[in-house]
Structures are given as C-alpha cells and as structure tokens.
Design a protein that fits this description.
By secondary structure, the protein is of the alpha/beta class. It has helices spanning 18-21, 45-50, 84-137, 176-182, 249-261, 273-283, 319-327, 335-355, 362-375, 385-395, 425-436, 484-494, 520-534; strands spanning 139-141, 163-170, 194-202, 209-213, 219-222, 225-227, 232-234, 237-240, 267-271, 286-290, 294-295, 309-310, 313-317, 376-379, 403-407, 410-412, 421-423, 468-471, 501-502, 512-516, 541-544, 550-553, 580-581.
Length: 597
C-alpha cells in the first residue's frame, strides 16, 4: 500500500479480512496521480511512468515549483513538447486542482470505510455480547441420572433420525414467586414434583409430530438415579412417576420414561410456575375454550384449586391466567382432563405463532428468546441459544394437522384405584412401539402405497432350530403361571421344533420371538417360522441381545398352546384416548358440574 493521503498520519496498514467485512481495500491504494504530500512526487512507480515525457493521464513529475513547466509535466490535454511557461503553468494549475479533488475523495472514502468498520465491529460485538448474555441465562443439567439405557434409533435412508424431547413442568415452591403463584407455603424447601410430563416426538423427516402425556399419578418402576445436588444415589423403586424429579432431577424423570417406553430421549426441558407465566406473556397467550362457566375453587372434598374463572366460550389466556388453565384438574374431572386441556393450550400457542409469522420476526424471536432462556432449564446438550433456535426452526414447518397429542392409555392402580393409575400395557406398549418405529399417530401416511416387503431367505427346517422358551407371565402384580414354559415347549415339539427347551423365567408384559441381532435376514426368517407356528403376529418378531432363538411367553399369553387371537380394538393405542389434533380450532373442555357457576 502507498502512503496515507492525510497529512501527518503516515502509512496505514491493510485492514484485516477487509473483503469479509464488506468493503474494498483498493479504495486506500494510491492512484496514478501520485500521493504527493506537500506537492512533492512520491518517487514511486507512478513517477517513473511519467518521467519519459509521454504525458500519460495524471503524470506529475513536475509538480513542485509554480513557475516550472517541463515537457510532459501537465495533463494529457497539454502534452505538446516545449509549450512554454504559460501553457506549463496552466497545466500545473489544472493538474493541482485534480490532485486536490482526488485527495478530497480519498479522504471521504477512507473515513467512510473507517466509520463502516466501527459500525460493523460495534454491531457484531454487541450481537456477540447479547448472544453470550442469552447463553448465560440458560440453566443446564445432566441429560441422565445414570439410569438411561435406551438405544438411539437408527437413521433412515436419508440419514435422518427422529427427535424426542421430554417436557417437564415442575411444581417447585422454592422461590417467593413460585410460592405466590402456586400456594402451599408449607412445601417450600421440599423436593419438587414433575406434575407435567410430556414426550414430544418429531419424525425423522420432520413432517409430523406427536405429544404423549403420562398422568402425574401413574405408578411406574423408577430406576436407580444419582442426585448430584444432594450427592447421593437413590435405589430403584416402584413409585408415582412425579416423584422421580425429587430422586435425581430431570435426568431421573428421563431415565424413568426410557425404562417404561424403551424410547431413546435426546433432551429434556423443564419450566416452573413463574416460567410458565413469563413464557405465556412472551408468546401472546393461547386461545382456550370451555363449554360451561368455570370456577376451579377449593371445596370440602377437594381443597386447593387453580382459581381459574371463565365464562363459557373461547378466551385468550396469558400470564397467571394461563398458569391457572394449565393447573386446572378438579374442574376438568381429573389429571386426564388436565392433560387434555394442556394439549389444547399447546396446539393453540403453536397455531398463533405460525399465524403471526413469529418464527421469521426477528423482534419477536428476540423477545421470546430473552424470556425462554431465563425461564427454561434444559439438558446440557441443548444448552445454547443456537441449538434452541435450530430446534424451533425444525418444528416450524410441521403442518398443524400432522401434530397429534394424547394421554397414555391407563388402568386403575390395584394398590390405590381411587387415586393412582398404571399403564394399560395392552394399549400403551403398542403406542411406545409406534414412537420407537417413528410411526405417526394419525393415518395420513397410510394412503401411500407401502413398499413390498423384501423377500428373505427360507427358514431352516423346524427340527434344526433350537428354541429357548422363557416364562414371562409374572407381570402386573400377578404370579407367574407355573409350568407355562414347559407347556409351550410341548406345543412347539408337536409342530416339529424338537430342539425346543425351557429357559429361566423373566417377567414380560407381551410375548415375542427374539433372534440375535447379528443373525440378519436368516435369523429373522427362522424367528418368523416359530411365530407362525404358534399364531404370534409378525410384529412379535424382534432382533434382540440374545444368543439364540428365544420365545418369551408374556403376560398376554397365560394359557393355551397357541397365542390367543387379539381383538384389534383391545390393543389400539388410539382408541378411547383423548387425542387432540393441532388443526382442531373447535376443541372445547367440558366442565365438571360442581365447578360451574
């Protein structure tokens, strides 16, 4: 680079990465007129080019003395050799005028670029600081409390995998704000409970999404969980699922879900009462509907209550009123009704954000980001603004009619049928299987022609197959049927599977025929031949961590030599559930009579 055209500043260095910042570094280069501080030639290449007297445009070797007019020292229009003092002087004045004009433009360009640089660096710096500020807002925790053992789904043909996120609502009263919103001052300082638990499943191709809630009063097996805050390990137990949060944080809730469903869960997100209020205000609330006037107040039979008070019809609820809607259960009949109301609320929020183009409105996104990062606690792998933003962008294009929400099928808990429930395994297990296999909860994809099944190798002859039969009938609190494995072994031998033998017992809710994962297509064909012989459905054949063909006789097959024919309605996970579709704007909650006014 040449010298700076501004007096006294000396040469300036090239601006680092100037091209990436959006301006042209050549603006600072000396042009053919010469960089003549004080009217003197620079002695650079431009001077040498002019010294031959060729009169090239801007040649300026004779620019020093006012009365001097050497040949070739003027501009291109006065290039006649020996033109005399007057002509030479005129050429000098014109050349000087041009040089002053170019110096002035040079200064303007330089200071414009410097100003741009300051603005760009300032804006970028402010943006970086704001990004760091948002990141600093986010509270993070371990994804698992040590009891996670589910396997992540394999990618599809396009290399895509489904996304599973556990959404948790905490009833923590460990702050003044949460006590004010949730009451129950006596519970301050106690272990929080996960009163809201929903699994958000987004398909691998990002074309549909499912949300499944588990009622807070569901009895399940909770695995061993490490509580890092209390530096203790809680042993496995059979307990109400909302207690898992107090046994090892959100990671323990995730582990409990994985143990129950077999679904690998990528992340969790948790919010408390105050967070619900703040986020509801940030997103503009939600449109909800009740069929009758509602007043969810304390009664003699049911103390407490959300204090939700609305007239019949549709209302936009936000802030504290939104929290009241999400907490209402007595007026909606039960925790099941509360889950249904929560699904309506979530669908409405998503619809409103889409209708308002909030996903592309920078101002709205910044407001929501500021609130969300302060209100949410997330698993560490999701703990940056970029990852949260990317998640939102993945969800924004899913059509509303491909979003379905429901509550897990359940039965009364034999230990406390009035207060607690247990999973209805006959329906819940097929539901979990749908999500594990990335199948949507609607039938939109059924219209597409299914690809013909690949033809595998022929199964080996029955007499050559060693089949290990396991008695798994001791489930759901029932004692295992004595001698059940022997009965089924005899049934197999009668059909030619002479190498069938009994194995050790292991409780299993459903029957299946497992083959080693490494056995490939041949192993699958052999397992299918066993299933066909005993009347088990094709869905019962699974690749598993077993050493050889294994027939598990589950709690759904306690008697008989062949698998009992199943009533499709009895195992339909979507029958008699409170499914809410995202496109249904007319959904409205029934109000339990004692809470009407």
């Amino acid at each position: 680079m040449g010298r700076n055209s501004v007096r006294g500043e000396g040469p300036h260095g090239r601006v680092e990465r100037a091209g990436e910042l959006g301006w042209d570094e050549s603006l600072y280069e000396d042009d053919a007129s010469g960089s003549a501080a004080g009217g003197r030639g620079s002695g650079g290449p431009q001077d040498a080019a002019a010294s031959d007297g060729s009169g090239t445009s801007g040649g300026a070797t004779g620019s020093g003395d006012a009365g001097r007019g050497d040949a070739g020292s003027g501009d291109a229009g006065s290039a006649a050799a020996g033109s005399g003092d007057t002509a030479a002087g005129s050429g000098h004045r014109r050349g000087g005028s041009r040089r002053r004009e170019k110096k002035r433009k040079h200064r303007i360009l330089k200071w414009t670029a410097i100003t741009l640089a300051v603005l760009i660096f300032g804006t970028a710096g402010a943006g970086y600081l704001y990004y760091q500020h948002l990141n600093a807002n986010i509270r993070k925790g371990d994804r698992s409390a040590g009891g996670s053992d589910a396997k992540k789904a394999a990618p599809n043909a396009q290399g895509q995998t489904p996304l599973n996120i556990l959404l948790i609502g905490s009833d923590s009263r460990n702050s003044d704000e949460n006590v004010a919103l949730g009451g129950a001052k006596k519970d301050r300082g106690g272990d929080p409970h996960a009163d809201v638990q929903m699994l958000l499943h987004v398909s691998a191709d990002r074309k549909n999404a499912s949300v499944v809630s588990i009622p807070r009063d569901t009895r399940v097996d909770v695995p061993e969980c490490k509580d890092t805050e209390k530096n203790k390990v809680n042993p496995p137990t059979n307990a109400i699922i909302n207690e898992a949060l107090g046994r090892g944080g959100a990671g323990c809730v995730l582990d409990t879900w994985e143990k129950l469903t077999g679904i690998y869960i990528d992340h969790w997100m948790m919010v408390d009462f105050a967070g619900v209020v703040a986020i509801s205000d940030a997103v503009g609330g939600a449109d909800v509907c009740v069929k009758q006037n509602i007043d969810d107040h304390p009664t003699r039979a049911q103390p407490g209550g959300s204090h939700l008070h609305l007239t019949a019809g549709t209302h936009n609820v936000k802030g504290e009123q939104a929290l009241q809607w999400l907490r209402t259960r007595h007026a909606f009949g039960s925790d099941i009704g509360r889950s249904q109301a929560q699904h309506m609320y979530m669908n409405s929020v998503i619809r409103n954000l889409k209708d308002q183009d909030a996903f592309t409105d920078t101002g709205r996104l910044m407001d929501i980001a500021e609130t969300a990062t302060k209100s949410l606690k997330v698993s560490a792998e999701l703990g940056t603004v970029k990852k949260l933003f990317d998640l939102g962008m993945e969800l924004k294009d899913i059509p509303m009619d491909r979003i379905n929400m429901l509550t897990m099928p359940r039965l009364p808990d034999p230990k406390d049928p009035d207060a607690h429930v247990i999973p209805d395994k006959a329906k819940a297990d097929p539901l979990w299987a749908m999500l594990r296999d990335d199948k949507p909860l609607d039938s939109k994809d059924d219209a597409k022609p299914a690809a013909p099944p690949a033809k595998g190798p022929a199964a080996a002859s029955p007499g050559s197959l060693a089949v290990n039969v396991v008695n798994g009938t001791g489930t759901d609190g029932r004692v295992a049927v004595k001698g059940r494995a022997t009965e089924v072994v005899n049934a197999l031998k009668a059909k030619g599977f002479t190498k069938a033998a009994t194995g050790s017992s292991a409780p299993a809710p459903t029957s299946e025929v497992d083959y080693p994962k490494g056995a490939g297509a041949q192993g699958k064909s052999d397992a299918e031949s066993v299933a066909t012989a005993l009347g088990l459905p094709a869905s019962a054949v699974k690749a598993a961590d077993v050493k050889g063909l294994t027939l598990v006789v589950g709690g759904d097959w306690r008697t008989g030599a062949s698998y009992p024919k199943q009533d499709p309605k009895a195992t339909d996970p979507l029958k008699d559930t409170e499914t809410v579709n995202g496109a249904d704007k007319g959904a409205c909650m029934e109000v339990y009579a004692p809470y009407r006014f």
